[in-house]
Protein backbone atom coordinates (compact mmCIF):
# COMPACT_ATOMS: atom_id res chain seq x y z
CA UNK A 1 0.00 0.00 0.00
CA UNK A 2 1.34 3.39 -1.03
CA UNK A 3 1.75 5.73 1.93
CA UNK A 4 3.01 9.27 1.56
CA UNK A 5 3.44 12.01 4.08
CA UNK A 6 3.51 15.79 4.21
CA UNK A 7 5.58 17.02 7.12
CA UNK A 8 5.27 20.75 7.77
CA UNK A 9 7.00 22.39 10.72
CA UNK A 10 4.48 24.64 12.49
CA UNK A 11 6.85 27.57 12.63
CA UNK A 12 5.07 29.74 10.05
CA UNK A 13 2.15 30.01 7.64
CA UNK A 14 1.54 27.55 4.78
CA UNK A 15 3.87 28.52 1.93
CA UNK A 16 2.66 27.85 -1.64
CA UNK A 17 5.76 25.69 -2.11
CA UNK A 18 4.58 23.58 0.84
CA UNK A 19 1.08 23.45 -0.57
CA UNK A 20 2.46 22.25 -3.90
CA UNK A 21 4.41 19.51 -2.10
CA UNK A 22 1.21 18.50 -0.31
CA UNK A 23 -0.79 18.49 -3.55
CA UNK A 24 1.79 16.34 -5.38
CA UNK A 25 1.84 13.89 -2.45
CA UNK A 26 -1.94 13.79 -2.41
CA UNK A 27 -2.28 13.23 -6.16
CA UNK A 28 0.34 10.51 -6.10
CA UNK A 29 -1.37 8.72 -3.21
CA UNK A 30 -4.83 8.93 -4.76
CA UNK A 31 -3.52 7.72 -8.08
CA UNK A 32 -2.12 4.64 -6.37
CA UNK A 33 -5.06 4.04 -4.06
CA UNK A 34 -2.80 4.92 -1.14
CA UNK A 35 -2.95 6.96 2.05
CA UNK A 36 -1.86 10.48 2.89
CA UNK A 37 -0.31 11.10 6.30
CA UNK A 38 -0.09 14.61 7.68
CA UNK A 39 2.85 14.68 10.05
CA UNK A 40 3.33 17.81 12.08
CA UNK A 41 7.07 18.26 12.70
CA UNK A 42 6.74 20.07 15.99
CA UNK A 43 9.86 18.84 17.77
CA UNK A 44 11.34 22.32 17.83
CA UNK A 45 9.26 23.53 20.74
CA UNK A 46 10.66 27.00 20.81
CA UNK A 47 9.79 27.79 17.23
CA UNK A 48 6.54 25.84 16.91
CA UNK A 49 3.37 27.79 17.64
CA UNK A 50 -0.32 26.87 17.84
CA UNK A 51 -1.09 29.79 15.60
CA UNK A 52 1.20 28.51 12.83
CA UNK A 53 -0.23 25.02 13.21
CA UNK A 54 -3.75 26.39 12.89
CA UNK A 55 -2.91 28.39 9.81
CA UNK A 56 -1.31 25.36 8.15
CA UNK A 57 -4.34 23.20 8.94
CA UNK A 58 -6.72 25.94 7.71
CA UNK A 59 -4.75 26.30 4.48
CA UNK A 60 -4.76 22.56 3.87
CA UNK A 61 -8.48 22.27 4.69
CA UNK A 62 -9.20 25.00 2.21
CA UNK A 63 -7.57 22.95 -0.58
CA UNK A 64 -10.23 20.28 0.00
CA UNK A 65 -7.72 17.47 -0.41
CA UNK A 66 -8.31 15.52 2.80
CA UNK A 67 -5.58 13.55 4.50
CA UNK A 68 -6.14 10.13 6.01
CA UNK A 69 -4.02 10.23 9.16
CA UNK A 70 -2.50 12.91 11.33
CA UNK A 71 0.47 12.56 13.68
CA UNK A 72 2.39 15.00 15.80
CA UNK A 73 6.08 14.35 16.15
CA UNK A 74 6.18 15.76 19.66
CA UNK A 75 3.89 12.91 20.76
CA UNK A 76 6.31 10.35 19.38
CA UNK A 77 9.33 11.58 21.27
CA UNK A 78 9.69 8.37 23.33
CA UNK A 79 9.95 6.40 20.09
CA UNK A 80 12.69 8.68 18.85
CA UNK A 81 14.67 8.42 22.06
CA UNK A 82 14.25 4.64 22.15
CA UNK A 83 15.54 4.40 18.59
CA UNK A 84 18.60 6.48 19.50
CA UNK A 85 19.21 4.26 22.53
CA UNK A 86 18.92 1.14 20.42
CA UNK A 87 21.51 2.55 18.00
CA UNK A 88 23.77 3.39 20.96
CA UNK A 89 23.42 -0.14 22.29
CA UNK A 90 24.37 -1.56 18.90
CA UNK A 91 27.37 0.72 18.64
CA UNK A 92 25.88 2.45 15.61
CA UNK A 93 25.76 5.69 17.54
CA UNK A 94 27.91 7.15 20.28
CA UNK A 95 27.80 9.84 22.94
CA UNK A 96 29.76 12.95 22.25
CA UNK A 97 30.66 14.85 25.43
CA UNK A 98 32.44 17.65 23.63
CA UNK A 99 31.24 21.02 24.83
CA UNK A 100 29.88 23.18 22.03
CA UNK A 101 32.65 25.75 22.30
CA UNK A 102 35.32 23.04 22.14
CA UNK A 103 34.23 21.65 18.79
CA UNK A 104 37.10 21.34 16.37
CA UNK A 105 36.37 23.40 13.27
CA UNK A 106 38.99 21.76 11.11
CA UNK A 107 38.64 18.74 8.89
CA UNK A 108 40.89 15.82 9.70
CA UNK A 109 43.67 14.60 7.45
CA UNK A 110 41.44 12.36 5.36
CA UNK A 111 39.08 15.24 4.67
CA UNK A 112 36.40 13.83 6.94
CA UNK A 113 34.84 16.26 9.32
CA UNK A 114 34.31 14.69 12.65
CA UNK A 115 32.48 16.20 15.53
CA UNK A 116 35.28 15.09 17.78
CA UNK A 117 37.21 11.99 16.72
CA UNK A 118 38.17 11.27 20.32
CA UNK A 119 34.53 10.69 21.20
CA UNK A 120 34.08 8.02 18.54
CA UNK A 121 36.71 5.97 20.27
CA UNK A 122 35.44 6.22 23.86
CA UNK A 123 34.89 2.79 25.36
CA UNK A 124 31.35 1.82 26.25
CA UNK A 125 32.27 1.80 29.95
CA UNK A 126 33.83 5.22 29.84
CA UNK A 127 30.84 6.60 27.93
CA UNK A 128 28.34 5.05 30.39
CA UNK A 129 30.33 6.31 33.36
CA UNK A 130 30.44 9.90 32.13
CA UNK A 131 26.74 9.80 31.23
CA UNK A 132 25.76 8.48 34.68
CA UNK A 133 27.92 11.16 36.29
CA UNK A 134 25.56 13.64 34.65
CA UNK A 135 27.94 15.00 32.03
CA UNK A 136 25.93 16.44 29.10
CA UNK A 137 26.33 14.86 25.68
CA UNK A 138 24.84 14.67 22.23
CA UNK A 139 24.22 11.33 20.57
CA UNK A 140 25.80 11.07 17.13
CA UNK A 141 25.30 8.60 14.37
CA UNK A 142 28.49 6.68 13.66
CA UNK A 143 28.96 7.10 9.93
CA UNK A 144 31.27 4.25 8.91
CA UNK A 145 34.77 5.48 8.47
CA UNK A 146 37.48 4.09 6.32
CA UNK A 147 35.13 2.68 3.69
CA UNK A 148 34.97 4.16 0.26
CA UNK A 149 31.32 3.24 -0.03
CA UNK A 150 29.15 5.54 -2.08
CA UNK A 151 25.48 5.89 -1.17
CA UNK A 152 23.33 5.90 -4.25
CA UNK A 153 19.61 6.28 -4.71
CA UNK A 154 17.34 6.87 -7.63
CA UNK A 155 15.40 10.07 -7.13
CA UNK A 156 12.09 9.97 -9.01
CA UNK A 157 12.59 13.52 -10.19
CA UNK A 158 16.35 14.13 -10.18
CA UNK A 159 17.50 10.69 -11.26
CA UNK A 160 20.52 8.93 -9.83
CA UNK A 161 22.10 10.64 -6.84
CA UNK A 162 25.24 9.59 -5.06
CA UNK A 163 27.57 10.74 -2.37
CA UNK A 164 30.66 9.29 -0.82
CA UNK A 165 30.16 8.17 2.73
CA UNK A 166 33.44 9.88 3.55
CA UNK A 167 31.73 13.22 2.86
CA UNK A 168 29.11 12.71 5.54
CA UNK A 169 29.86 13.83 9.07
CA UNK A 170 28.79 12.01 12.21
CA UNK A 171 25.49 13.83 12.50
CA UNK A 172 23.56 14.34 15.73
CA UNK A 173 20.53 12.22 16.66
CA UNK A 174 19.80 13.61 20.13
CA UNK A 175 20.70 17.09 21.29
CA UNK A 176 22.35 17.69 24.65
CA UNK A 177 18.90 18.50 26.12
CA UNK A 178 17.76 15.04 25.03
CA UNK A 179 15.55 16.26 22.19
CA UNK A 180 15.63 14.37 18.89
CA UNK A 181 16.99 16.09 15.79
CA UNK A 182 15.05 16.35 12.56
CA UNK A 183 17.11 13.55 10.96
CA UNK A 184 16.31 11.11 13.73
CA UNK A 185 12.66 12.03 14.29
CA UNK A 186 11.88 12.15 10.59
CA UNK A 187 13.47 8.81 9.77
CA UNK A 188 12.05 6.98 12.78
CA UNK A 189 8.58 8.29 11.95
CA UNK A 190 8.83 7.55 8.24
CA UNK A 191 9.92 4.06 9.14
CA UNK A 192 7.30 3.45 11.88
CA UNK A 193 4.47 4.97 9.87
CA UNK A 194 5.27 2.77 6.91
CA UNK A 195 5.92 5.61 4.49
CA UNK A 196 6.66 4.17 1.07
CA UNK A 197 7.35 7.39 -0.85
CA UNK A 198 8.98 10.54 0.47
CA UNK A 199 8.07 13.46 -1.77
CA UNK A 200 9.51 16.73 -0.46
CA UNK A 201 11.37 19.88 -1.38
CA UNK A 202 14.74 19.78 -3.09
CA UNK A 203 16.24 21.56 -0.10
CA UNK A 204 16.15 18.16 1.63
CA UNK A 205 17.93 16.24 -1.11
CA UNK A 206 21.30 16.27 0.64
CA UNK A 207 19.69 15.11 3.89
CA UNK A 208 18.52 12.00 2.11
CA UNK A 209 21.98 10.39 2.22
CA UNK A 210 21.95 10.64 6.01
CA UNK A 211 18.41 9.35 6.13
CA UNK A 212 19.33 6.34 4.02
CA UNK A 213 22.10 5.47 6.50
CA UNK A 214 19.60 5.80 9.33
CA UNK A 215 16.92 3.73 7.59
CA UNK A 216 19.51 1.01 7.12
CA UNK A 217 20.61 1.19 10.75
CA UNK A 218 17.01 1.09 12.00
CA UNK A 219 16.41 -1.95 9.86
CA UNK A 220 13.37 -0.68 7.96
CA UNK A 221 12.60 -0.78 4.25
CA UNK A 222 13.97 2.09 2.26
CA UNK A 223 11.24 4.36 0.86
CA UNK A 224 11.33 5.78 -2.64
CA UNK A 225 12.47 9.42 -2.75
CA UNK A 226 11.34 12.26 -4.96
CA UNK A 227 12.55 15.83 -4.49
CA UNK A 228 10.68 18.75 -5.93
CA UNK A 229 12.39 21.79 -7.42
CA UNK A 230 11.98 25.03 -5.56
CA UNK A 231 9.75 27.99 -6.34
CA UNK A 232 11.53 31.20 -7.22
CA UNK A 233 10.36 34.80 -7.38
CA UNK A 234 10.67 36.91 -10.56
CA UNK A 235 14.08 38.09 -9.32
CA UNK A 236 15.36 34.52 -9.30
CA UNK A 237 15.64 34.27 -5.53
CA UNK A 238 13.89 31.61 -3.46
CA UNK A 239 10.28 32.61 -2.94
CA UNK A 240 9.97 34.00 0.56
CA UNK A 241 7.50 36.10 2.47
CA UNK A 242 10.16 38.50 3.63
CA UNK A 243 11.31 39.15 0.08
CA UNK A 244 8.14 38.60 -1.95
CA UNK A 245 5.29 39.27 0.46
CA UNK A 246 1.77 37.86 0.57
CA UNK A 247 2.06 36.06 -2.76
CA UNK A 248 3.88 33.29 -0.90
CA UNK A 249 1.08 32.46 1.49
CA UNK A 250 -1.76 30.07 0.61
CA UNK A 251 -4.32 32.05 2.57
CA UNK A 252 -3.56 35.08 0.38
CA UNK A 253 -5.26 33.28 -2.51
CA UNK A 254 -8.20 32.17 -0.41
CA UNK A 255 -8.69 35.71 0.88
CA UNK A 256 -8.58 37.14 -2.63
CA UNK A 257 -11.38 34.87 -3.78
CA UNK A 258 -9.52 31.97 -5.38
CA UNK A 259 -11.19 28.62 -5.71
CA UNK A 260 -9.27 25.63 -4.34
CA UNK A 261 -9.50 24.20 -7.88
CA UNK A 262 -7.77 27.33 -9.23
CA UNK A 263 -4.81 27.36 -6.86
CA UNK A 264 -4.35 23.60 -7.15
CA UNK A 265 -4.33 23.75 -10.93
CA UNK A 266 -1.89 26.67 -10.92
CA UNK A 267 0.50 25.15 -8.37
CA UNK A 268 0.57 21.85 -10.26
CA UNK A 269 1.76 23.67 -13.35
CA UNK A 270 4.68 25.16 -11.43
CA UNK A 271 7.27 22.60 -12.35
CA UNK A 272 5.01 19.98 -13.88
CA UNK A 273 2.87 19.65 -16.97
CA UNK A 274 1.03 16.75 -18.54
CA UNK A 275 2.36 15.29 -21.77
CA UNK A 276 0.13 17.29 -24.07
CA UNK A 277 0.68 20.51 -22.10
CA UNK A 278 -3.01 20.79 -21.27
CA UNK A 279 -3.32 23.71 -18.87
CA UNK A 280 -6.78 23.46 -17.41
CA UNK A 281 -7.12 20.36 -15.34
CA UNK A 282 -9.82 19.12 -13.03
CA UNK A 283 -8.95 17.28 -9.85
CA UNK A 284 -9.86 14.00 -11.53
CA UNK A 285 -7.60 14.72 -14.48
CA UNK A 286 -4.75 15.68 -12.17
CA UNK A 287 -5.08 12.41 -10.27
CA UNK A 288 -5.00 10.53 -13.54
CA UNK A 289 -2.21 12.43 -15.28
CA UNK A 290 0.23 13.43 -12.54
CA UNK A 291 3.64 11.77 -12.86
CA UNK A 292 6.61 12.34 -10.58
CA UNK A 293 8.87 11.49 -13.50
CA UNK A 294 7.56 14.44 -15.46
CA UNK A 295 8.25 17.00 -12.75
CA UNK A 296 10.91 19.39 -14.09
CA UNK A 297 14.33 19.49 -12.54
CA UNK A 298 14.63 23.22 -12.93
CA UNK A 299 13.18 25.54 -10.35
CA UNK A 300 9.82 27.05 -11.22
CA UNK A 301 9.30 30.80 -11.35
CA UNK A 302 6.27 32.54 -9.90
CA UNK A 303 5.95 35.53 -12.20
CA UNK A 304 4.37 38.75 -11.00
CA UNK A 305 4.91 42.46 -11.22
CA UNK A 306 5.70 43.84 -7.81
CA UNK A 307 4.70 47.33 -8.91
CA UNK A 308 1.34 46.49 -10.39
CA UNK A 309 -2.01 46.58 -8.65
CA UNK A 310 -2.25 42.84 -8.96
CA UNK A 311 1.08 42.15 -7.33
CA UNK A 312 -0.64 39.63 -5.06
CA UNK A 313 -0.81 36.96 -7.76
CA UNK A 314 0.87 35.63 -10.86
CA UNK A 315 -1.38 36.72 -13.79
CA UNK A 316 -1.31 33.11 -14.91
CA UNK A 317 -2.76 32.04 -11.55
CA UNK A 318 -5.60 34.51 -12.00
CA UNK A 319 -6.22 33.34 -15.54
CA UNK A 320 -6.37 29.72 -14.45
CA UNK A 321 -8.65 30.56 -11.56
CA UNK A 322 -10.96 32.44 -13.92
CA UNK A 323 -11.07 29.49 -16.28
CA UNK A 324 -11.88 27.15 -13.42
CA UNK A 325 -14.54 29.50 -12.12
CA UNK A 326 -16.23 29.55 -15.52
CA UNK A 327 -15.92 25.90 -16.35
CA UNK A 328 -16.98 24.29 -13.06
CA UNK A 329 -20.53 22.98 -13.14
CA UNK A 330 -22.45 25.96 -11.77
CA UNK A 331 -23.91 23.75 -9.04
CA UNK A 332 -20.39 23.10 -7.75
CA UNK A 333 -19.52 26.79 -7.87
CA UNK A 334 -22.62 27.88 -5.99
CA UNK A 335 -21.53 27.00 -2.44
CA UNK A 336 -18.42 29.17 -2.84
CA UNK A 337 -20.46 32.10 -4.18
CA UNK A 338 -22.94 31.74 -1.33
CA UNK A 339 -20.14 31.99 1.21
CA UNK A 340 -18.77 35.04 -0.56
CA UNK A 341 -22.19 36.75 -0.53
CA UNK A 342 -22.87 35.88 3.10
CA UNK A 343 -19.49 37.21 4.12
CA UNK A 344 -20.40 40.47 2.41
CA UNK A 345 -23.50 40.45 4.59
CA UNK A 346 -25.88 40.18 1.64
CA UNK A 347 -29.07 38.23 1.40
CA UNK A 348 -29.23 35.53 -1.21
CA UNK A 349 -31.72 36.13 -4.02
CA UNK A 350 -34.72 33.86 -3.80
CA UNK A 351 -36.40 32.02 -6.56
CA UNK A 352 -39.70 33.80 -6.20
CA UNK A 353 -42.17 32.11 -8.49
CA UNK A 354 -41.63 33.43 -11.99
CA UNK A 355 -40.14 36.72 -10.85
CA UNK A 356 -36.53 36.00 -10.42
CA UNK A 357 -34.41 33.23 -11.74
CA UNK A 358 -32.55 31.19 -9.22
CA UNK A 359 -29.19 32.18 -7.85
CA UNK A 360 -27.79 29.44 -10.03
CA UNK A 361 -28.93 31.11 -13.23
CA UNK A 362 -27.65 34.51 -12.10
CA UNK A 363 -24.26 33.10 -11.17
CA UNK A 364 -24.05 31.34 -14.49
CA UNK A 365 -25.04 34.51 -16.34
CA UNK A 366 -22.51 36.83 -14.77
CA UNK A 367 -19.50 34.56 -14.26
CA UNK A 368 -18.42 34.70 -17.89
CA UNK A 369 -16.08 37.62 -17.22
CA UNK A 370 -15.11 36.88 -13.65
CA UNK A 371 -11.75 35.68 -12.37
CA UNK A 372 -12.26 35.36 -8.63
CA UNK A 373 -15.10 34.97 -6.16
CA UNK A 374 -14.55 38.60 -5.14
CA UNK A 375 -15.88 39.60 -8.55
CA UNK A 376 -19.32 38.44 -7.42
CA UNK A 377 -19.40 41.05 -4.67
CA UNK A 378 -17.50 43.71 -6.59
CA UNK A 379 -18.23 43.67 -10.32
CA UNK A 380 -21.36 41.61 -9.69
CA UNK A 381 -22.63 43.66 -6.75
CA UNK A 382 -25.74 44.89 -8.58
CA UNK A 383 -27.10 41.37 -8.90
CA UNK A 384 -27.17 40.77 -5.18
CA UNK A 385 -27.45 44.10 -3.48
CA UNK A 386 -29.43 47.34 -3.80
CA UNK A 387 -26.40 49.55 -3.58
CA UNK A 388 -23.62 49.09 -6.09
CA UNK A 389 -20.99 51.25 -7.75
CA UNK A 390 -21.39 52.58 -11.30
CA UNK A 391 -18.30 52.62 -13.47
CA UNK A 392 -17.23 55.75 -15.33
CA UNK A 393 -18.16 54.46 -18.77
CA UNK A 394 -21.56 53.34 -17.54
CA UNK A 395 -22.11 56.76 -16.04
CA UNK A 396 -21.30 58.33 -19.44
CA UNK A 397 -23.82 56.06 -21.13
CA UNK A 398 -26.48 57.20 -18.70
CA UNK A 399 -25.64 60.82 -19.28
CA UNK A 400 -26.18 60.69 -23.03
CA UNK A 401 -28.98 62.90 -24.18
CA UNK A 402 -32.46 61.59 -23.58
CA UNK A 403 -31.33 58.34 -22.02
CA UNK A 404 -32.47 58.89 -18.43
CA UNK A 405 -35.86 60.08 -19.49
CA UNK A 406 -36.35 57.18 -21.93
CA UNK A 407 -35.42 54.71 -19.20
CA UNK A 408 -38.09 56.17 -16.91
CA UNK A 409 -40.61 55.81 -19.71
CA UNK A 410 -39.44 52.24 -20.26
CA UNK A 411 -40.10 51.50 -16.60
CA UNK A 412 -43.73 52.57 -17.01
CA UNK A 413 -44.18 50.34 -20.06
CA UNK A 414 -42.56 47.35 -18.36
CA UNK A 415 -44.95 47.71 -15.45
CA UNK A 416 -47.84 46.94 -17.76
CA UNK A 417 -46.35 43.83 -19.43
CA UNK A 418 -48.22 40.59 -18.90
CA UNK A 419 -45.18 38.49 -19.32
CA UNK A 420 -41.79 39.75 -18.17
CA UNK A 421 -39.34 37.82 -20.35
CA UNK A 422 -36.17 38.91 -22.11
CA UNK A 423 -38.08 38.75 -25.43
CA UNK A 424 -41.00 40.89 -24.25
CA UNK A 425 -38.59 43.37 -22.65
CA UNK A 426 -36.60 43.61 -25.86
CA UNK A 427 -39.72 44.22 -27.99
CA UNK A 428 -40.92 46.88 -25.57
CA UNK A 429 -37.57 48.64 -25.49
CA UNK A 430 -37.12 48.62 -29.25
CA UNK A 431 -40.58 49.94 -30.02
CA UNK A 432 -40.21 52.66 -27.39
CA UNK A 433 -36.87 53.66 -28.93
CA UNK A 434 -38.45 53.81 -32.34
CA UNK A 435 -41.36 55.93 -31.12
CA UNK A 436 -38.88 58.34 -29.61
CA UNK A 437 -36.65 58.38 -32.66
CA UNK A 438 -33.76 57.17 -30.53
CA UNK A 439 -31.19 54.52 -31.31
CA UNK A 440 -32.10 51.33 -29.42
CA UNK A 441 -28.40 50.85 -28.61
CA UNK A 442 -28.35 54.03 -26.54
CA UNK A 443 -31.22 52.78 -24.42
CA UNK A 444 -29.73 49.34 -24.11
CA UNK A 445 -26.41 50.71 -22.88
CA UNK A 446 -28.22 53.07 -20.56
CA UNK A 447 -30.31 50.23 -19.15
CA UNK A 448 -27.22 48.10 -18.59
CA UNK A 449 -25.64 50.99 -16.71
CA UNK A 450 -28.75 51.67 -14.63
CA UNK A 451 -29.33 48.04 -13.78
CA UNK A 452 -25.80 46.73 -13.23
CA UNK A 453 -23.54 49.77 -12.89
CA UNK A 454 -21.36 48.29 -15.61
CA UNK A 455 -20.65 49.23 -19.20
CA UNK A 456 -19.97 45.64 -20.19
CA UNK A 457 -21.43 42.36 -19.05
CA UNK A 458 -23.93 39.74 -20.03
CA UNK A 459 -26.61 40.33 -22.64
CA UNK A 460 -28.61 43.36 -21.52
CA UNK A 461 -31.96 41.61 -21.81
CA UNK A 462 -30.73 38.75 -19.68
CA UNK A 463 -29.91 41.30 -16.99
CA UNK A 464 -33.55 42.42 -16.88
CA UNK A 465 -34.79 38.94 -16.15
CA UNK A 466 -31.95 38.14 -13.78
CA UNK A 467 -32.96 41.08 -11.60
CA UNK A 468 -36.71 40.60 -11.89
CA UNK A 469 -39.39 43.11 -12.75
CA UNK A 470 -39.71 44.97 -9.42
CA UNK A 471 -36.04 45.60 -9.13
CA UNK A 472 -35.75 46.67 -12.78
CA UNK A 473 -38.62 49.15 -12.53
CA UNK A 474 -37.25 50.54 -9.33
CA UNK A 475 -33.77 51.06 -10.75
CA UNK A 476 -34.98 52.54 -14.03
CA UNK A 477 -37.21 54.99 -12.19
CA UNK A 478 -34.36 56.09 -10.00
CA UNK A 479 -32.06 57.08 -12.87
N1 LIG B 1 9.57 19.49 8.66
C1 LIG B 1 10.43 19.40 7.52
C2 LIG B 1 10.24 20.66 6.69
O1 LIG B 1 9.24 21.33 6.85
C3 LIG B 1 10.06 18.17 6.75
C4 LIG B 1 10.97 17.78 5.68
C5 LIG B 1 10.62 16.41 5.15
O2 LIG B 1 9.63 16.33 4.41
O3 LIG B 1 11.30 15.46 5.52
O4 LIG B 1 11.10 21.03 5.93
The geometry reads as elongated
| SS-derived structural category | mainly alpha
Give the assembly state of these chains: single chain
Based on CA atoms alone, the radius of gyration comes out at 31 Å
Strands of the widest sheet, in order across it, are 1-2-3
Main sheet overview: 3 strands, parallel
Average pLDDT rating: 93
Unreliable segments of 5+ consecutive residues = 106-113
Number of strands: 12
Describe this protein's structure:
The protein has helices at 16-31, 50-63, 77-89, 117-120, 124-132, 182-192, 207-218, 241-244, 250-255, 260-268, 283-289, 315-327, 330-343, 359-366, 374-377, 392-399, 403-415, 422-435, 440-452, 460-467, 469-477, and strands at residues 3-6, 35-40, 69-72, 93-96, 138-141, 150-155, 159-164, 172-174, 197-201, 224-228, 231-232, 300-301. The strands form five sheets. The chain has a three-stranded parallel beta sheet with strand order 1-2-3. The protein has a three-stranded antiparallel beta sheet with strand order 4-5-8. With 479 residues, the chain is mainly α. The structure holds glutamic acid. Glutamic acid is lined by residues 7-9, 41, 186, 200, 204.
Amino acid sequence: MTRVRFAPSPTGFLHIGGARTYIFNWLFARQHGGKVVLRIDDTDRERSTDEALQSIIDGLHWLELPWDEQHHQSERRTKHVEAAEALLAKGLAYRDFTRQNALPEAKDAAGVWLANPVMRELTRDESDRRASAGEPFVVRFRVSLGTDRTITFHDQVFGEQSRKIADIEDFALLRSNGSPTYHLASTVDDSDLGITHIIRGQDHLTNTFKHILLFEALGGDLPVFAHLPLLLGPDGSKLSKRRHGEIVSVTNYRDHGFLPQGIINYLCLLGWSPKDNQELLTRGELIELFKLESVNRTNAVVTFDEDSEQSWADPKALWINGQQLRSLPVRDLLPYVEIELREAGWRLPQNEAGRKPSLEATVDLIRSRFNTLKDFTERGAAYFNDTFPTDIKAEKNLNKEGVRESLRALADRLATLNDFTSESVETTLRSLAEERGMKAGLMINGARAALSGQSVGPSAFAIFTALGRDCVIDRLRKV
